[in-house]
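Limitations

Structures in this collection are predictions, not experimental determinations, and the ligand pose is part of the prediction. Treat each record accordingly. The example that follows, with hypoxanthine as the small molecule, is included so readers can see exactly what is and is not provided: the inputs are given verbatim, and the output is the predicted complex.
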Amino acid sequence: MKALGDEITAAYPDGELLVLGLLKGSFIFLSDLVRAIHRPLQVDFLVASSYGDAMVSSGMVRLLYDPETQLEGKHILLVEDIVDSGRTLQQLVELLGERKPRSLGICALLHKHIASHLKHPVRFVGFDAPHEFLVGYGLDHAENFRHLPYVASLQ
Ligand SMILES: O=P(O)(O)OC[C@H]1O[C@H](OP(=O)(O)OP(=O)(O)O)[C@H](O)[C@@H]1O
Ligand code: HPA
Ligand SMILES: [Mg+2]
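Predicted complex:
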């Protein structure tokens, strides 16, 4: 976490930084990550869901909470727990891009590298992940296992 925090700190030498956590999955990662970033920042959240109880994406990303914080002119760092099919990111990047941020960066704890066609690359990655369904440290299966203090595979 220190290395990722230092990388992010160095990447944003000036301007306002808004760290936007994508719930629910990012809640534990985000709380560790912001404590490893050593520059002023604000925190807000988006709530989106596409998996429900399944292990494959429904393809429909539902936005359940949209932040009221002004995004225009700020560096936005969107924080994801995991990038899998890339659909969630693709849809959110389009939506957030319309709000004229100064920059839009993506940070993910885990990246499965399935989505080779991602229009917006993930700039900050914690770990490359296997092509298995992972749970723990915020990640769920049917809302269970989020509390585990480690990441585990259900395969
Ligand atoms: O790259 P993708 O295939 O789009 O998958 C990644 C997204 O799917 C999961 O969210 P989910 O819909 O399970 O909601 P949750 O965060 O509330 O668990 C995960 O937290 C990511 O946000
Ligand atoms: O591997 C996963 N685990 C939990 N949630 C997910 N959402 C996309 N991929 C995953
Ligand atoms: Mg989920």
